[in-house]
Amino acid sequence: MAALQKSVGSPLRDTLAAGCLLVMVLCAQGGAAAPITSHCRLNESDFQEPYIFNHTFTLAQEASLADNITDVRLIGNKLFHGIHQVTKRCYVLKQVLNFILEEVLFPQSDKFHPYMEKVVPFFSRLSKKLSQCHVESDNQHIQRNVQNLKNTVKKLGESGEIKVIGELNLLFTTLKRECAQVDQGWKMGY
Question: Looking at the record's lineage, which domain of life comes first (predicted)?
Fold first, then answer.
């Protein structure tokens, strides 16, 4: 009987040990083996905080009044040039959102009260939710498009920062459209 238990217990024990090892490896990698789409997605409910839509659009409108550069668009189709897959488009927006938070919104947070104090934490939460969003394939198009936006903002200086704040409404709607998609694996460029 002991020999039977030992022979049956051994494969079961080995399977459990292998399963535990797999879980430990995935945890150590931050779950990198999980499907990419699970992390490059926001929920529709993320955009339904009370008044956040109005606060974001009012802030953008106030900043637009101070924006004297009318021939440059930062958040638009050019940002997605050559990128058609939804997960990659959401990844682009994650990169743009992180740049905007770090280089524009946090440094400019003392301006445009009271809306800035509501909008910055909202975008910070979205950034945190997208923090595990990564693209494992060739992403040269993505990096080039994001870098073009960064270079344009930096070249324009404070006027570029004001322009970014004036386009937060576009960032809001684009994040919602591209990252809160439901069961759609690809999207045609427009």
Answer: Eukaryota
Q: Which pLDDT score is estimated for 38?
A: 52
Angle, CA of 170, 52 and 148, to the nearest 5°: 25
Amino acid at residue number 122: F
Residues 103 and 185: their CA atoms lie apart, in Å, by 31
Q: Which two tokens stand for residue 17?
A: 């040990």
Fold of 51-181: Growth Hormone; Chain: A; (1.20.1250)
Contact of 130 with 42, CB cutoff 8 Å: yes
| pLDDT for position 15 | 34
The predicted model scores a pTM of: 0.74
Which of 161, 157, 176, 38 is closest to 110 using CA atoms?
Answer: 161
Q: Give the tokens for residue 102.
A: 């770090």
How many angstroms separate the CA atoms of 9 and 28, rounded? Answer: 28
Backbone φ, ψ for residue 134 (5° rounding): -135, 155
Residue 138 has pLDDT above 80, yes or no: no
Q: Let me know how long the chain is.
A: 190
Q: Which residues contact 27 (CB under 8 A, 6 or more apart)?
A: none
Band the pLDDT of 119: cuts 50, 70, 90. very high
- The 8-class DSSP code of residue 101 comes to I
CA distance 60 to 11: 62
The residue-averaged pLDDT of 81-98 equals 93
